[in-house]
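ok so I'm stuck.
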Amino acid sequence: MIGRMLGGAGMLALGLVCCITIPPYQGVPEDASDGVVDTNPGLTPLARLIGNAYRDQDMSGQGTVMMTYDGYGISTAGIAAGDLVLFIANIDNGNDKIWSLPFGFTQLAQHFYGADGQTYFAAWKIATAGEPTFYAGTYDKTTGVTSAAATISLIAISGADPDAPIDPASGVLRTDSSLATSPVDVSSSGVVATVDHSLIVMAAGADWTPYDGTNTFEPPTGFTTLTQIADENTHWHWTSQAIATKAQAAKGPTGPLTATLTGHPFAAPSMAGPGAGWSVVIAVAPPHAP
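replied:
not stuck anymore, here's the structure
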């Protein structure tokens, strides 16, 4: 009898549930007191890796298709119209203008640094339906190019604001040091997200003092590593990079971001190899009204 009573109650409950309409998730209530209104509340932009490109050193170096001593190329397969595309790259040696902008991109950072020397580069664009098969360009080798060992990562971010995805005044910060440390310090003082539910992207890399080895990446607390690539794919001869992301629910400063790259030279696997680090931190905003 008890079983039959519970069965009847269960049927009644099921009948009630079937009659309830659950409203769609509306996100976190927006505080518009500062005049910035999130038009897509609760939805943080999402990043995905499109691909990597790499090339090891010297004129006879090997790597992915279109990566040469004279220029670069990386496939755009997987990019959708409306995506925010981030082009992150670094090259051994170089100068402050070695990376030519892929068509339609806006530069965020390009800087030569370090005792041995390396140049890192970051740029963005909003993709259209007519993106080329490859983003490609040549190197300005007026000064400072010897090995041309290089890495590129292409990141697509869906759900970013199509008109103002990045605040150039407070949403981007590049940091580097000519001092080689072990582990390599790629920390940043951080950026300011001007909109709730922003995505924070950290790209970082190293100019390795020893050559030939691997490294481990320790991103800032709460960040998830999206990709790692080196100039010989799974290991480096001179250079490597890593990218990590984190959703930030509330607008405001990220605070200091502590991150490291620990090198493991093949010649001395138990020794943490030194290198000089760089990082670029970017706050990506969801759609918002001014």
